[in-house]
Amino acid sequence: MLFHDLTMSLVLPFLLCLPLFFFFFSLKKKRRVDKELVGTGTGLLPPGPPKLLFIGNFHQFTTTSSLHRRLHHLSRRYGPLMPLQLGSRPTVVVSSARIAKEIMKTHDLEFAGRPSFVCQQKLEGIEEDMHY
Hints:
Subcellular location: Membrane
Transmembrane segments: 6-27
Membrane topology: Single-pass membrane protein
Strand content: 5-15%
Helix content: 40-55%
Oligomer: single chain
Shape: elongated
Order of helices and strands: HHEEHHH
Number of helices: 5
Radius of gyration: 22 Å
GO cellular component, one term: membrane
Structural class: mainly alpha
Distance between the termini: 73 Å
Keywords: Heme, Iron, Membrane, Metal-binding, Monooxygenase, Oxidoreductase, Transmembrane, Transmembrane helix
């Protein structure tokens, strides 16, 4: 009986801590992958504002200023081409006419097959991928 109680007193905390270990391990791995994707010249994406785990960059749009003013403020800080994570969707924001023209003229095939948002289709009633 004493051995059983001792075993349960050691096994139960271990079993409770195991999911926490896997959660923090996966979080650390995700941050490492994010750092590889966003870099200072070597990454695939330009540098952007820091994001939170589940909500992405939504916390940066909770101020009282309007959306276009907040995006303008972020573009002055991070440049005319910046990645944002809107929930689980990665998004690239272009705030320069020159870069937008280059994307639509020379890189149109890379952006042609990207998925559209369901809420966008319901609000507009049409499927458009670019907004001006």
